[in-house]
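Hi L., both proteins are below.
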Amino acid sequence: MRYENIRQGVFLSRPNRFIAHVETGGGVEVCHVKNTGRCRELLVPGAPVWLTESANPARRTRFDLVAVQKGDRLINMDAAAPNRVFGEVLAAGLLLPSPTLIRPETRFGDSRLDFYVENRSSRAFCEVKGVTLEQDGVALFPDAPTERGVKHLKELVKCVEAGFSAWAVFIVQMRDVRYFTPNRATHPAFADALRAASDAGVRLLCLDCRVTPDSITARGEVKIVL
């Protein structure tokens, strides 16, 4: 996926989850942060960031903050990007060959899962999680407790019990991580639920991404360590 009208700036502060103050060549902009996670290790004062201009001229915040530089890594932090990236993976037939139906935001049981996809021989539900937390080359999810994430994993197990294929997909919004593992220190219940889902037949997939200031695309599979 690609962004239009990219502008570079310097991160100053984040008064709340939804907005950031960014220094640009034209002064200080109040920007929408397209990620409600903590992102404390990313949004530090002085960090280079990239903004995309909103297509809605009436919106209160003119720009969206979509990427940040952390050391030598460029990290996409747009929470909407992982679903769009994985949608491209599905359309290319890289999960189920020759898909005949790809339907986003499909309800199963008590949850709305990110994708339902089928081909002539398989039917699958997929839940996608974006990963922006990296420590010493290891990608971790979540960066804050997520009861909703635990609920989704339990729903994927019910999909398997109902005869569907089910996938928990982690899109690492950067490249060249050594492996992915659930963040047990932050949310042990999610780590336990991921292990239980895998044992119950839910398939796990982790992909890293090629990230530029104005694009993010799936790159390759990342090892998962439970």
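That was the first. Here is the second:
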Amino acid sequence: MSTVSATTKPQLSFWQIWNMSFGFLGIQFGFALQNANTSRIFSTLGAEPEKLAVLWVAAPITGLIVQPIIGFYSDRTWHPKWGRRRPYFALGAVLATLALCIMPNSPALWFAAGMLWIMDASINISMEPFRAFVGDMLPPSQRTTGFAMQSFFIGIGAIVASFLPNIFSKWFHISNESVNGGVPDSVKYSFYLGGMMLFLAVMWTVFTTKEYPPEPHHQNLRNREKRKIENEETAKVRIQKVGMLLLLFGLVIIWTVNYMGNVYKELYLLGGGLTFFGIVHLIAVYYIRQGRSYLGMVHMVRDLNYMPKTMVDLAYVQFFSWFALFSMWIYTVPAVTTYIYGSTSVTSTAYNEGANWVGSLFGIYNGVAALAALFLPILAKYTSRRVTHFIALVFGGLGLISIYFVKDPDFLIASMIGVGIGWASILSIPYAMLSGSLPPEKMGYYMGVFNFFIVIPQIIAATVLGFFLQAIFGGQTIYILVFGGACMIIGALLSLRVRSSEEVVIKN
């Protein structure tokens, strides 16, 4: 392929977009198995319900660290044969496959929590460059379609992966019961198959898609970064202020938790995270003062503090949307098994039937998302991206809230239809709105930073939901789902404030 710019990229065919997105089918096999079964694995290995959120925190923390770093270095990678993003696709696929095979064989709770960390890091290595891949390969007019295609494969992958424990137990009569405190065989076989599918699907994209050679602004990126950052003094003052505030808030939270007698130890994670990023900012200021502003870390911190306005506006939408999703992923199993199936014993038949049904419900909402993804570009063309996102998030929020009113497990299908519509939009529309506002040579890094606004609400959810459950909701996990639904509707309202620079393009 010859060198092209964003304005001269040719329209790709349906099958070209299909091939470049197919790897997300495998990535979602991994994520769907993780989302639907991690709480079950933790519970089987002895975790209490109020501790589930903090055990899950490994996943978002991993994404917070891994995605921006992978994005930053993938922007600066080029190999004549392997391209820019595809080396990271392949590496992540190998590591994630190994992690998926090991996770369900965890001998103890601490081991399972550690494997979740490794598995999520590996999946993120593959997933992050896929978001930038759309911006690299497609002209602006096709980016909504590109991200919607990713959503379609996410939905299809999640459908199959979410149903796997049921398929193995009911079709192949593989044990669905926990024996001697171990993970059921139906879950183990699901993870083995999921690992294989992840590897094969990602490698399909690696070997069927060729990337464009570096554009001039990519070729000159390293040379520009050897010089001092622009507006060095102004950037230094801004970074220092932000760093001091983050450090102050982090230390206040840590002191408050300690003063309260460590009652809510999970909040240490939030305080520790703020403190860490405050220190990183101050280290960047130190390097600037030392005349070392060419360092990658300094550029990452600087770019983080000078995000495009569209990205800032979307951050608020993402916060409430993903807080709701993380609430659902953590607490749907205990909420459904307790509130609807009336069982709290992880060894009971009712509990495992309810847990399997939740896995199936997750498959249903992903199936709805796969179908909805096909129609989102059409709706966006005749309205706008922000209106499309608003409508979808309202459906998602109402779907979560409706679980409170369900008594018959079969009626939860209706709730998941709403969730699926919201999920389809969350996976595509924000990225389509964002991609046009990003510098092409920093597409990977900013797509990684955008993951902050997925991860931060997840970390906050992991640190405060246990507190909410005990102190506010009286231990009733169903109210966490209602609260999550309300958060998603708030995100819908905030989406109306976002202005996408490419809306005029998609209407043409």
